[in-house]
């Protein structure tokens, strides 16, 4: 998985929807990280490959729809734009994880299917979980994320800012 540091960077793409407030962007960042709450499954003895194991239901399209719908209810204005933005942030997590080179894959279609998927191209180095993050492998992961997550997001955010400022 990309790290807890890199998943919320996707929320910076709010520049494509200028009406989105700082509070909504913060919520988008939380939605981008939320699927990894499933790491508690390791401590609970839930097998990785279980529906509720790591990269299972919390990494599904259904979970992204549910959490983005709930987040949208917390805001009064621009709900269509907010839902689309929140759904994008929530779904970005499993999409980025499917670009990593480790693990068992992503259960995109849970709870209907627990089959796990990766994309054919997996350029992002999978992040070690726990103390391993603070190792040479963790540094390798972060460098990979700078290249494959941060840089593209920064360029897309800049493009969004440029296009939205031209439109006004």
Beta content: under 5%
Structural class: mainly alpha
**Cα distance, first to last residue?**
38 Å
What is the gyration radius calculated from CA atoms? 16 Å
Q: What's the pLDDT, averaged over the residues?
A: 88
Q: Pick out the low-confidence regions.
A: none
Helix segment count?
A: 5
Helix content: 40-55%
Described by strand count, sense and barrel closure, the largest sheet is:
none
Query: Care to count the β-strands?
Result: 0
N to C succession of SSEs: HHHHH
- Please state the overall shape, judged from the principal axes of the Cα atoms: globular
Number of domains: 1
Q: Strands, helices and their partners?
A:
Elements: H1 22-33, H2 40-43, H3 61-73, H4 79-97, H5 136-167
Describe the protein:
The protein contains five helices and no strands. It has 168 residues and is mainly alpha-helical. It has one domain (7-167). α1 packs parallel to α4 (79-97) and α3 packs antiparallel against α4 (79-97). The chain is globular, with a radius of gyration of 16 Å. The model has no long low-confidence stretch (mean pLDDT 88).
């Amino acid at each position: 998985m990309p790290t807890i540091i890199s998943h919320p960077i996707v929320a910076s793409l709010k520049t494509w929807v200028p009406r989105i407030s700082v509070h909504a962007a913060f919520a988008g960042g939380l939605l981008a990280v939320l699927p990894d709450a499933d790491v508690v499954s390791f401590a609970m003895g839930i097998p990785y490959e279980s529906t509720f194991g790591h990269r299972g239901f919390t990494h599904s399209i259904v979970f992204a729809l549910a959490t983005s719908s709930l987040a949208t209810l917390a805001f009064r204005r621009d709900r269509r734009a907010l839902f689309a933005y929140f759904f994008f942030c929530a779904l970005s997590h499993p999409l980025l994880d499917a670009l990593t080179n480790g693990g068992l894959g992503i259960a995109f279609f849970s709870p209907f299917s627990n089959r796990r998927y990766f994309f054919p191209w997996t350029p992002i180095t999978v992040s070690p979980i726990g103390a391993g993050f603070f190792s040479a492998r963790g540094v390798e992961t972060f460098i990979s994320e700078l290249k494959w997550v941060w840089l593209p997001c920064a360029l897309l955010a800049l493009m969004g800012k440029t296009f939205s400022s031209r439109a006004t």
